[in-house]
Amino acid sequence: MNEKIIIGRGMKYPLNGILSLPDHCTSMVPAVVLVHGSGPADMDESIGANKPFRDIAEALSAKGIAVLRYDKRTKIYGKQMLKENPGDVTVESETIEDAILAAKLLKNDGRIDSDKVYILGHSLGGMLAPRIDAEGGDFTGIIICAGSPRILSDILMSQNDDMLSQLPKFLQKIANRQIAGLKAKFDAISGMNEEKAKQTKIFGKTYAWYFKEMAEHPVTHYLSRTEKPLLILQGDKDFQVSTEKDFALYQQICIGKPNVRFKLYPGLNHLFMKSVYGRVKDFKKEYKIPQKVSTEVLEDIAEWILA
Q1: Closest to 250 (Cα-Cα) out of 146, 157, 159, 141
Q2: Of the four listed, 36, 82, 228, 302, which is most buried by Cβ atoms within 10 Å?
Q3: What gap in Å lies between CA 127 and CA 283, rounded to an integer?
């Protein structure tokens, strides 16, 4: 059963969303807020021909768990935000504020068990999930899907290096110069004050302050402090975050923490779907193939929440 809702009703950036409830929802049920990856995204987190958030909502609500998904603020108001204060945009205004509003909306719904509200963050949303919890989301548990404990600029550089190694030799020279230029820009960020960072473009419409503000709130800080149940999932054919650099680092940071459970899925990509090409340079082709989020992943998430 799907209900249309609005996140931030009466506020500056109201967002359309859908609350998927189990059929014949008569008692208080557990619930989960879905938080998008990077870039403007709709409530289904549509990527190419795929809609991972819709898959998750349909599967979990069928198992007795309510799911709240909504359009990302930059999808609806991105142009307006960039026009007003382009250098001020951070993950706080882009993602965190709305995820906290979503949590509050669920906790105030009489059909939801307010002691069983979870967050599921995908990609950048997974990176931010422990911070969202600490800054006011106050969830019962945290699910990190294809996230990373590294800083965002490091992840982007890794993706660029992987892309470079997959290009023909004649293109590598040109790409190498561009990557070196981007690295120099990233290296300069730490030495900038806030004002300078808000005025310095890194690429496209993204300013240095976006990266600097995020680096000042490291994922490791939140992970090491939380005692809440954590579920960390990744596909081993993910070419946007890596098994060695990201999943293994989560394991290292959380060593000896009884509240954390890990699972790596063979053959799955960044969307937890079957990997076809398995290379970062083919990501557009890979995501054009219509697929569904793996049933095994969906069953593991539902089982963990219901446990």
Answers
A1: 146
A2: 36
A3: 21
